[in-house]
Amino acid sequence: MSSQPQTLLPRLRALGLRPRKGLGQHYLTDPDILADIVAAAELPPAAVVIEVGPGPGALTAALAPVSGRLIAIELDNKLAPLLAELYEDWPQVHIIHADALQLSPTQALTQTGGVAPYYALGNIPYYITSPLLRHFLEAELPPERMVFTIQLDVAQRIVARPPRMSLLAVSVQVYARPRIVRKLPPGAFTPPPKVHSAVLRLDVLPQPQVAPEQREAFFRVVRAGFGQKRKTLRNSLAAGLHLSTTVTESAIRAAGLNPKQRAQELDISQWLRLMAEIQKPTD
Regarding the domain with residue range 212-279, which homologous superfamily does it belong to in the CATH classification? Predict the structure, then answer.
């Protein structure tokens, strides 16, 4: 095993291989930013890590020396075999050619040595941000912590608090505590994206704030509330749940809320109270 892992960047330049726009590839190679991403994960000794979208392997090179097992999932059929070749002398590094959205964490872990607590990191294609977060947070075995580089405005929506909540914020905060580690300018990437970016850390809760048997009803109510976010809760819930405004106003008041409030003003505990009231049978 070589003392210091390398990246594919010199070889990609020699081969004339450039980031593929269709896969949302923007390479992040700044060593200081990469070090901040690894530090934000607070990996314990011999941590098991799943990296999504290693690309040329810049973050992989930073993670390999501090991981007990590193599973890098790469969709690009040109990069995956090159990465496997680059890391053939690193027995703890496993390169899987697959779509991270189609491969469950349990499958990735099973293929590479067995199921274990793990951490998820990556400089991910921005167009898969929401489905990827859901993929990990709702997995049979969610990670201990996630650190992803994503679009700044999306990160800001995820970490929002009342009165600036969004459906995305609720959907993530049910499962994890999010915070922005640092913001990144477009020039930190090759090629530069058209938007600013952020390193987002998500500390996954030991137990989600909504029990599994309540989630379908919970998100049905939340989606209805945000369905017409310019309207008051009284009206948006009535439209989204096909109830009369009399019923929704009664439920809102019983939950200790104001019918004139809007969805973005509620936190998760208030949504839970509201769901419970809406589920109560009416006379």
Answer: rRNA adenine dimethylase, C-terminal domain (1.10.8.100)
